[in-house]
Amino acid sequence: MLFSSALTLCFAVIGAVATPLERRAKAQVITKCTVPNTVALTFDDGPWVYLYDVSNALTGAGAKGTFFFNGNNWGCIYDPEEVKRVKFAYNAGHQVASHTWAHKDLTTLTWDQIHDEMWRVEQALMRITGAYPAFMRPPYGNYNDMVLEASGIRGQSVVIWDFDSGDSGGASVATSKNLYDQIIARHPSTILPLNHETIETTVHQVLPYAIKKLQAAGYRLVTLAECLGKAPYQSVAAPSTPDANWHC
After folding, report:
1. Residue 241 domain-assigned?
2. What is the reported pLDDT for 9?
């Protein structure tokens, strides 16, 4: 599908969104992987300055990860350096997905505001990479029926997690490592961890430790889509060229 056609399709979807009173099929909520022996390391809240280090740590270990990007959280996704980071992650074979535009609690928003938070980051990812994401992680992991209905209309699954490294709550490096040790010791068939690429200690101390321990335990470190046996994107086209519309 050409990029222009994809944009036309997405705008048509938005135009078709009537009201929350008109019940729609709810999005699937994903809380764990389904392909045995896989771990999908996920990273929220970027793009940010540590993205290259996250990507390189994964690539150096023959692994892939999934980045849930915001549009305007720690930085504006359209800033030239942020655009480079998003492209770098995508071109390295990692999965890019939606974490909504401004990291707002979607359960506090109106129907139209929810769609705006979703659409703006989807549009940005399509412009930068050409890929229309098939997965969305709601900020704080918070969702309600209206969020699920909006995601369903947008053709996306809602992704949570089954393991939290604790980094966003202020966990120390030692605590996060210990949490990884505990889950690995239980050796579930799959693990879907929550990490944050905006936290320096996560990137430079916890991540290398987790990669080594997980692989030593026999897990394959793959993208979210791979750990589910699903496609990562609803469509893929050529990226767009920056213009005056690329702003936050």
Report:
1. no
2. 44
pLDDT in tens, 68-89: 999 999 999 999 999 999 999 9
- The range of the structural domain enclosing residue 118 comes to 3-17+31-236
The set of catalytic residues is 44, 196
Residue 96 lies in a domain: yes
Residue 242 lies in a domain: no
Amino acid making up residue 192: L
How far apart (Å, rounded) are the C-alpha atoms in residues 222 and 58?
Answer: 10
pTM, full prediction: 0.91
% of the chain beyond a pLDDT of 70: 91
Distance, in Å, from the CA atom of 24 to the CA atom of 151, rounded to the nearest integer, reads: 10
CATH of the domain at 229: 3.20.20.370
74, 49 Cβ separation under 8 angstroms:
no
DSSP H helices in the chain:
3-16, 51-60, 80-91, 111-129, 145-153, 173-186, 200-201, 207-216, 224-228
In a domain, 220, yes or no: yes
Q: What is the rounded CA–CA span in Å between residue 55 and residue 41?
A: 11
How far is the C-alpha of 212 from the C-alpha of 112, rounded, in Å?
44
Q: Using the 8-state DSSP alphabet, how is residue 233 labeled? A: E
Per-residue pLDDT reduced to its tens digit, 153-170: 999 999 999 999 999 999
Mean pLDDT of 51-58: 98
Q: How many domains does the chain have?
A: 1
